[in-house]
Amino acid sequence: AKPPPVKTNPSKRHRDRLNIELDRLTSLLPFSEEVRGRLDKLSVLRLSVGYLKVKSYFHAALQKNARSAPLVSADNRKGQSVSLDGVSFSEGELLLQALNGFVLVVTIDGTIFYTSPTIQDFLGFHQSDVVHQSVYDLVHMDDRELFKCQLHFALNPSETDSDTRAEDGQPGSKASSSCVSLLPQYIPPENSSFLERSFCCRLRCLQDNTSGFLALNFTGRLKYLQGNTEADGTVAPPQLTLFAIATPLQPPSVMAIRTKTFLFQTKHRMDFAPVGIDTRGKLVLGYSEVELVTIGSGYQFIHAADMMYCADNHLRMMKTGDSGFTIFRLLTKTGHWLWVQAFARIVFKGGRPDFIIARQKALT
Known about the structure:
By secondary structure, the chain is an alpha+beta fold. It has helices at 10-28, 33-37, 41-68, 74-78, 91-98, 119-123, 127-130, 144-150, 157-168, 177-180, 254-259, 279-285, 289-295, 307-320, and strands at 82-84, 87-89, 102-107, 112-115, 196-204, 213-225, 239-248, 263-268, 274-277, 322-331, 337-349, 352-362. It has a 5-stranded antiparallel sheet with strand order 4-3-7-6-5, with helices on both faces. A hairpin with a 4-residue loop joins strand 3 and strand 4.
């Protein structure tokens, strides 16, 4: 007797092929294995689109610079690494570390086109959390209108939009600010001082502060963003984009600089299961991000005598939004107990609890 035919599920085959392609796409993202391991499918697609747009911009910018300065070699243009006494290091990475701030590139519609990895040192958000997301999710509600005006060359996008609709004879049409920004009769030259920007604005901050926002000074200018493509694959005309350096409005004190080396940050789900840790935390505790995530509950790292105390503060945080200062012992990878002072609070997204951020300072 012939064996019964094996039933196949076309939907399952499609999902399997899609998952294989997403895994391959994830492996190509320019992030560490730990960061790639915690990305969901939508984040993989979002970051892939953002990476391709950045790559397209730099390709167009390098071609433009090559035409204006053809005698400059490709090696000198890239400037990716420098060798000193036989030791290679990234010049760009060292410049970012020396900068008291981070680089932020925002398109005219408010999308974060690029931000430097050092944004995590000031706001607590990883680069992968904000790239190709709306900048208005980070901007304080009272400062959003100010930030929107700074993205427009005339500092008054509503007035220009109404003028353009009147000229087109379409009072009810939705003329986007990006389209208006491309009309030559409205735009000053790219090297014009009218395109320079210097303003202050508050952005969401996950670091250890009471307000949840950090006042930053943005200094930069509007520049043309080259190399964009439309949905149908055609090359889009360049649009004005804000290229800025964001620095804290209040410089850190000497004591804050000294104690910064003892501070580290962890990210948890609402049940306190760890999902991430920063670089300093890896050095202090000795764990990698993969080792923390695979263990499961965050209480497995807490001393047995401190568990009920931490659980009470956990319940308090679920009711009030923050845990207050909590002093307890954490288990390091070497098997030693480390006294830490922690302050945890809930981060909301869309009015609902999203995750927990804990700032911890090593005491011993």
